[in-house]
Design goal:
With 114 residues, the protein is mostly helical. The protein has one domain. The chain is built from six helices and two strands. α1 packs antiparallel against α4 and α2 crosses α3.
Length: 114
């Protein structure tokens, strides 16, 4: 099973905005993903973006403006998710320094250092 992430969709939209893909190719890509049993959508945001891109007759046409809206919406959600993750780490007492110490003390890190 493959997990489709927001970054995958943003990469396709970036290629569209850069002129590497046509709107029809983006729609076909999204339509192909919708019906697959071996593709897992990472979250509801990904599912919503795929739906928006796969059904221009119901939603908006795939345009550079829609791509910009998707980028902006997703960026705001990503920032909120990062902030929530930081708050959670602070709540449970983890800091970046502690994470680095834990990682460097792991047996795998010690083996790599040799």
């Amino acid at each position: 099973m493959v997990s489709l992430q927001v970054a995958h969709i943003m990469a396709v939209l970036r290629r569209f905005v850069d002129g590497d893909l046509s709107a029809a190719q983006v729609v076909a890509w999204a339509e192909a993903l919708e019906g697959r049993d071996d593709v897992e959508f990472a979250n509801d945001i990904v599912l919503d973006l795929v739906f928006r891109l796969s059904a221009p007759e119901i939603n908006d046409d795939v345009t550079p403006e829609l791509a910009a809206t998707c980028f902006n919406d997703t960026t705001q959600l990503f920032k909120a998710d990062v902030a929530a993750s930081r708050r959670e780490r602070a709540r449970v007492g983890w800091s970046r320094a502690q994470c680095l110490v834990e990682r460097s003390a792991s047996p795998a890190a010690q083996t790599e250092a040799r």
